[in-house]
Amino acid sequence: MAITRRQFMTYVGGSAAGAVVFQACGVPADELLVQAPVEMPEDLVTGLDNWYATLCRQCSTSEGIVVRVMEGRAKKVEGNIDYPINQGSHSARCEAGLQALYHPDRIRGPMVRVGERGSGQFREISWEDALGRLTEQLQNIQNDGNQSSVVMATDPVGGHLGGVVERFVSKYGGRHMGYEPMERTTVRRAIKHVFGQDTMPDFDIENSNVVLSFGADFLNTWGSPVRHARGYGEFRQGDRERGDFIHVDSRFSMTAANADKWVFVNPGTEGLLALSIAQVIIDEGLGDAAAAQALTNNGRFNLGAFAPDNVAGATGVSAERIHEVAVQFASHGPSVAIGGGSAGAHTNGFANLVAIYSLNQLVGSVNKPGGVILNPTSPFKDVPVTAGVDSFADWHRLAEEMRNGGVQVLMVRDADLFHGLPQATGFKGASFNVPLIVSFSGFIDDTTAMSDLVLPQHNSLEDWGSDIPDAGPGYQTVGFQQPVVRPFFEHRGEHLGTRNFGDTLMAVALGLEMDLELPGDTFQDVLKDGARQLFEENRGSVKAVTFEGFWNGLLQRGGWWDDSKKETHVFAASPLVEVPQASFSNRDFYLMPFATTGIGDGRGAALPWMQATPDPITSATWQTWVEINMHTAEELGISEGDVVRITSDAGSIEALAYPHPGVSPNVVAVPVGQGHIAGGRYAKDRGSNVYSILDASSDSTTGALAWAATKVDIVKTGEWKRVPKLENTVTEPPRDDERLIIEITPLDS
Amino acid sequence: MAENKWGMIVDIDKCIGCQACVVACQSENNIPINEEGHFNQRRAIEWIRIERYWEGEFPNVRARFVPVFCQQCDDAPCEPVCPVYATYHNSEGLNVQVYNRCIGTRFCANNCPYQARFFNFWEPEWPESLKNQLNPDVTVRSRGIMEKCTFCIQRIRRSTREAAKDGQEVEDGDRGMSPACVNACPTHALTFGNLDDSDSAISKQSKEELKQPAGSRPGGRGYHMLEHLGTHPNVVYLKKVDKTAEEHEVHG
Amino acid sequence: MQEHVQLSQKKINDDLLAGVLGMPKWWLGAVGFLLLVIATGIGAYGYEINKGLGVTGLNRPVLWGFYITNFVFWIGISHAGIMISAILRLTQAEWRRPVTRVAEVMTIFSLMAALSNIMFHVGRPWRLFWVYPYDFSRGLFMNIRSPFVWDPSAVMTYLIGSTLFVYVALIPDIAVVRDRATGKFAPKIYGMLCLGWRGTPRQWKLQAIAGILLSALVLPVFVSVHSIVSWDFAVAIGVEGWHSTIFAPYFIIGAIHSGVSAVAMIMALAMWMWKLDNYLRPDHFDAIGRLLIVVATTWFFFFFVEWIFALYTLESPELALRELQVFQAPYMWLFLAFLLTSFFIPVPMWLFKSVRRSPGLMFLSTILVNIGMWLERFLIIIPGLARRQPLQFDWGSYHPSIVEILVVAETFAFVALGMLLFSKFFPIIPIFDMKEGMQVREEIKIGRRIVPASIRETP
Ligand SMILES: Nc1nc2c(c(=O)[nH]1)N[C@H]1C(S)=C(S)[C@@H](COP(=O)(O)OP(=O)(O)OC[C@H]3O[C@@H](n4cnc5c(=O)[nH]c(N)nc54)[C@H](O)[C@@H]3O)O[C@H]1N2
Ligand SMILES: Nc1nc2c(c(=O)[nH]1)N[C@H]1C(S)=C(S)[C@@H](COP(=O)(O)OP(=O)(O)OC[C@H]3O[C@@H](n4cnc5c(=O)[nH]c(N)nc54)[C@H](O)[C@@H]3O)O[C@H]1N2
Ligand code: SF4
Ligand code: SF4
Ligand code: SF4
Ligand code: SF4
Ligand code: SF4
Asked: Is A453 helix (H, G, I), strand (E, B) or coil?
């Protein structure tokens, strides 16, 4: 067909007009092209990718991951198959490390506050300037001989970085405090009491026949959920007979949902229940006789008082049930008892956990397949396995000290004190008496927003590091973290952008003319020195002729481990302790705060994938909801989405009601981790912070925050807001009565 | 090269509802961020999702989890209704979705009994820096079109191509080939592989588990979800084991 | 049976062209109002294109909503045209004469409205043409198994067929207008449109044959179109309540029900608007009323049978759907309204001759039917998707957004405007047909009564 020039111009004009119209409607330009052959998915054009092994830092477990990198950009996180803890698997939280790396609200360089404290107004300065300001202040304090007024608060920082921090603080003369929002101080102390160990043990769920757990949401958020879940898969459908799983908890958690039996227990009576189980086992001669002797201190500790009939009332568990659980636990070994979470977060948490973990001694499952596997010590001379964590009582004292002007400089790194410490401590108010708050965090969390000076660290995927997993897999293991991509803000030049935290401290030390006596000038040197120690041991998973070869092997595999190096020494059982009555205020409902699958204890709140991860039980996302018993809610006239005011002695928050059939009528459960005042666009001013209304009660032995010891009242505010959740809001909870979806068999094939 | 037929086994007895698969899929497949509003509008996109079903009430309450995603039905009801062949069956037993072809009638989604199809009501948006994470192997879908689980076809392609380069066939259980959700799952509730390869773990296991009870032999735990609809899925579910439950009659 | 006023040819011409050649006062106002509604609708649609279908109330799993409901509704309405003209013409029912054109024209505009709904509905309307075989060379072809391929083809065929049908019948009347039109352009345009009609016997003969042929040809299309539309649902094995073999005849009879009602409605409107009392007589309404009783009852029978089919199996998903439709708010109220408006109010009304002969009451009752039939489609489509499904996590609900409501309103305004414009430019009562009726009328005596002869046409 012949087209004249004129016609051609007309057509062009016509289609241009069309294009303009479509553009005006917002249709993307490429939509105008007729595209693609039918076999599209097969035609995909791909580039080259690389997978680098490193450590995940999205939660404190620090598991081994591999990161897919294309053209210098991290694309995907997967579990490191080699890494002993997680063996290739990972949790929902790990993937989101990418979103932390590429978060639009990351701190892009050092900053100094310009507005009021807490106003969130900062001005960028150069690293030289920032370091100078901090050094000057520290110098002044040093000149006054007031070094103990300098406090360094961090997350429980372990590995070689922990070493650098300790060295810096002790050389300077300040104090280092470790902070965990849902701290595990109590469980560590109980482990120490029962097993005589500082490190957390491994639970050999995989080879266990009966798992009896108390309070710990160990498949979801407690300890190393990925490791537990991996074992759980084998436990259920491995080569052996299918295991039985009993979960004792005051909240119907994801872990409870997966148990064969969920035993509801009145909050604070977990220890009573455990003692009662011990009583049945000893009484019926099902356990290890020697251990029974030791545990009861040769009969001096009278367990008779805890016979099922005597505790049934207090615990809310029937005597038959207690008996049944005890017999099952003791007679179908190997079995393992796990305790933590809310069971250890009452005022009597320590005693509860001692009773629970002692059950392992009683049935002789310590350091046996299918039981509690003790972990060996660190392969390094100077780096311990356990990172220091301070108890709530310590933080409470610190707040007091701050109020009295005893703290001159508060340095923080990844410890969101302003978010996590209950209002009752008065921490926020006291912080105004601290002249200088410095944050080393790479992200605007609530605490960084309250700081005066920010010296941002790299994202973990851009950074070096190491970790000794605690709990380990039962043998010596060290994870090595390498940068998988170059620092995102590298292009901003060396005066701006982010830095390694260790390097920053070393630069400050240099400014103070303080010799940290570290092997080298950079954190990487410290790390390499650690690696050299392992190289010289010449054992374990990586061996090489040269150190260079060893180093490369180490980074390729993501760490080093020696599965022949185990803990062999088993302590004899130490006597049980009295379980005091847990104390609560006088209100209607027990408040069960819980960490969620997505945002965990709050550390994932900034990441949209984590916010959008449905809670397994409620499928809720992005908000703070309150789980309440279906019928109780009906009585109170509360239906889903009603905004409910939750009031404790310490304050009140609002949350969206989510009634469901799995909550006890005397309990309400609220997820932690929302209600940030900062935290970037995805976290800021979203939901409510349940930490803030916790009573300032603590464990009577360890001083740890008793975060499950608060009671609350609830009232309907009259407002309504849709609960953002995956499941639709329908007239009744979904039940697969005809088993069209989930088929069930009593038989184990 | 031998033909492949990709399939998946989901062991509900292992699945704990941890959502690792869900987020892994979001990350691998450039699924738009599900904002709060998307959930409220019931337009969140999760190619694999965990459904939770209640049984009983407090204190004898149970919640059971089941991962649901495209079952890659051999007789897929979604296919015949698509007017433009945007969804069709490929030679490897996959129900493929050609984004470029889709005109957004949503007919396929109505006809999918598994609710596995997701419509892009909005143009996907990411803050500029978050785009760095997007997987270059996977098209970002514009608004107005349908999407769903692809069994991570980009991974299958990449590994078959790389294997072919070395003159080999893809190996079953090859990690590089495994879909993102399978690699993520901490309990190993998901198994992926070639159903047509008689040596593959998945074909052996699915044969074993799909055995019907006979005589004293209890039969396997395998079943297809909504089997009575005759969609012939390539996903085999393994029954949840619950000693207190009664064997459920096979529904018709 | 015809009561009539014998009118002169001149009077007929004057009356029936009054609308075309004059300009009633309300006309501009009405057109203005409709244009406003249309502009709002187009604006809303522009917004939808700009933002994506997110601006509708659709969600998972209710992925079809107002637009598809409205599509089916307009397809239904369109069926009246052919029903009235073709069937009545073929069966030579005398009372059809003044009614046919209204019905046919309505067919055309409602088909256009229906097609536009498809455009509103899809995610990427700019690619809608892909459902036609347009590009063999690239190996791209539509999937002929999908009803969504047959839909547009059938609707297009129907649209083209009925447009020709109307046009052929219109030619002699255009010639009359041509001869009376004044001004510079009007005579020329009408002259072109009437294809040189001079009224020669050969032309009359050809026109009549073409009319009859087209009637016969369009009839099968009429049956197929709504069958195909019903398959949009009937093939959906995934949706309870849609997957029913009775849907094709059920949809067709439903379409006739709503379509014939719409014709009665528009007849009343036309009568009032263009003062056609001499042409649209109570006996026309009477006749249509009787037809409606038959149609409505047949439709109700199918409706009933469909329910029996559904409930007979006693399958839980089906029961869940029916329960949702009948016992759960808001569908429950809609269902009640649907039953009352589509059957239980109008049919008893029509049983009374006084009602049938009253244009006002006929107008009211047929409006009710159309409300009811719109609801019927809604109640088939939405609860089917929103019902409690096996995967209960995803059963849902649906609230139309303001955008959808505006766009749907636009389709009504569009059809109304189309009719209004048509009746402004062309005679809405077939002039030649009326005259023919006058010519061939003859009274005959049957027993003691004198009745008009039923007329056999002589082509
Ligand atoms: N290393 C190297 N680089 C080069 C070149 C080279 O030879 N070597 N050549 C250069 C030249 S000449 C060119 S033209 C460019 C080409 O560079 P690009 O334009 O990037 O071309 P492709 O990578 O082939 O295709 C881009 C993407 O389009 C997708 N695609 C395919 N069909 C369609 C469709 O219908 N619609 C849409 N939306 N997407 C579709 C593909 O899946 C692919 O992901 O590269 C340039 N860069
Ligand atoms: N399979 C496949 N085919 C494709 C494409 C694809 O992606 N895949 N892409 C298509 C596209 S987008 C393009 S642009 C074409 C490109 O197709 P070609 O234009 O054929 O491109 P090349 O093969 O890159 O280069 C052609 C030749 O130019 C020679 N050459 C290099 N420098 C010079 C010079 O200075 N002078 C002269 N005289 N010769 C020189 C090179 O050695 C080479 O032999 O391919 C198209 N065909
Ligand atoms: S559980 Fe924690 S450390 Fe382990 S991979 Fe997931 S986020 Fe990372
Ligand atoms: S699960 Fe649904 S989307 Fe997937 S093949 Fe089957 S019908 Fe199609
Ligand atoms: S939404 Fe897309 S894939 Fe689905 S039927 Fe319509 S055109 Fe086909
Ligand atoms: S197979 Fe791939 S696309 Fe499908 S659910 Fe798993 S990760 Fe997502
Ligand atoms: S990752 Fe595995 S265990 Fe977790 S929800 Fe998915 S399928 Fe279930």
From this structure: strand
Q: Assess whether pLDDT exceeds 90 at residue B71.
A: yes
**Residue from B114, B118, B147, B227 to probe ligand 4 pocket by mutation (most atoms less than 8 Å from CB):** B114
Q: A110 near A616, Cβ under 8 Å?
A: no
Task: Give kind and range of the element (H or E) at residue B237.
Answer: strand B235-238
User: Closest ligand to B74 CA?
Assistant: 4
Q: A535: distance to nearest CA of chain B, Å? A: 30
pLDDT of A1 over the 70 cut: no
Q: What CATH number labels B6-251?
A: 3.30.70.20
The Cβ of residue A2 has, within 10 Å, a number of other Cβ atoms equal to 4
Query: Considering only A448-462, A671-685, B218-232, C15-29, which range has the smallest mean pLDDT?
Result: C15-29
pLDDT in tens, A370-385: 889 998 988 888 888 8
Measured between CA atoms, how close is C67 to chain B, in angstroms?
11
Residue of C nearest to A38 (CA): C140
Q: Chain C: give the shortest CA distance to residue B165, in Å.
A: 29
- Is the pLDDT score of C360 beyond 70? yes
Closest residue in C to A725 (Cα–Cα): C393
For chain A, the first-to-last Cα distance in angstroms comes to: 72
Question: Which residue has the least CA distance to atom 7 on ligand 3?
Answer: A94
Which residues in A lie closer than 8 A to residue B66 (C-beta atoms)? 741-742
Q: Is the CA virtual torsion C112, C118, C121, C126 positive or negative?
A: negative
Q: What's the average model confidence in pLDDT over A510-514?
A: 88
Identify the residue whose C-alpha is closest to ligand 5 atom 8.
Answer: B82
Nearest CA in chain B to C54: B121
Residues, chain B, total?
Answer: 252
Q: Report which DSSP code applies to A678.
A: S
Q: Token pair of A509, please?
A: 């030390």
Residue B45, SS3 per DSSP? coil
For ligand 5, atom 6, the nearest C-alpha belongs to: B105
Tally of domains in chain C: 1
ipTM: 0.83
Q: Please tell me the distance between residue B143's alpha carbon and the centre of ligand 5 in angstroms.
A: 13
Mean pLDDT calculated for residue range A628-643: 92
Atom index in ligand 5 nearest the CA of residue B117 equals: 4
Range of the domain at C230: 9-454
pLDDT at C2 over 50: no
Q: Taking residues C225-232, what's their average pLDDT?
A: 88
What would the pLDDT profile of A728-748 be if each residue is shown by its tens digit? 877 778 888 888 889 888 876
Cβ contact, residue pair C392, A736, below 8 Å: yes
- CATH at C413: 1.20.1630.10
Residue of A nearest to C42 (CA): A25
The neighbouring-strand residues paired with B53 are: B64
Per-residue pLDDT for A39 more than 70?
no
Neighbours of A744 (CB within 10 A): 21
* Whole-angstrom Cα Rg for chain B: 19
- Rounded to whole angstroms, the Cα distance separating A89 from A67 reads 13
Please count the other Cβ atoms lying within 10 Å of the Cβ belonging to residue A611. 28
Name residue A661's amino acid. P
Q: Find out whether the beta carbon of B48 lies less than 6 Å from any atom of ligand 7.
A: no
Element (H, E) at A229: helix A225-237
CA of residue B83 to ligand 5 center, whole Å: 7
Domains of chain A: 5-101 (2.20.25.90), 111-180+384-516 (3.40.50.740), 202-373 (3.40.228.10), 589-720 (2.40.40.20)
Q: Distance between CA A600 and CA A226 in Å, rounded?
A: 14
Helix (H, G, I), strand (E, B) or coil at B119: strand
**Quick check: B41 and C64 CB within 8 A?**
no
Closest Cβ opposite residue A730 in set C135, C390, C395: C395
Put simply, whether B96 touches C (Cβ < 8 Å) is no
